[in-house]
Design goal:
Number of helices: 11
Largest sheet: none
Radius of gyration: 16 Å
CATH topology of the largest domain: Cytochrome Bc1 Complex, Chain D, domain 2
Length: 193
Amino acid sequence: MKLVVLFAAVLATGVAAAADLAAGAAKAQTCVPCHGPAGISQVAETPSLAGQPDGFLQWQLVFFRTGTRKSPLMQPMAATLKDDDIRNLAAYFSAQKPPRVDPAAKADEALVAAGRKVAQGNRCTSCHKDDFSGAQATPRLAAQREDYLLKALRDFKAGRRVGGGVAAMADVVYPLVDDDLRALAHFLAHMPS
């Protein structure tokens, strides 16, 4: 909780320095092997970072750095990041064009319809916006990798991943069955960004 209060205080007071996009682009070269050039992932179960909200990216890097969010790959990388690195990386990735739905990846219309119904019935747009572009500390979901979305949903449901200080995601996904999670991931992955 102290981390959340400190981070919010820094953001609210404007003490944080302005981001340096060039420094963020240089630092992001370390991220390319997994998250792809310009933040468009081609690696299974690895999210695209391009076009994610700046605040969301900063929070996630802080969570990895402190160990609040677990990942054997990301925790050691984030542990080396200074506050300026986090600001710069977040600014760089948020400034990139978000991924587009792959035209070669055919959507299963029945699964899309089922996923849309799950999203509508579980207040997904109240945090992620009507177009699923995310805002502030809430991630962009539109056109994200389907395999990553499914993994994230399953991790929230199993308690292996928590949201930013509230249990909103666990609350939403807990009553869903795996078919609902698969439909939701498919729907979001095929939603234009």
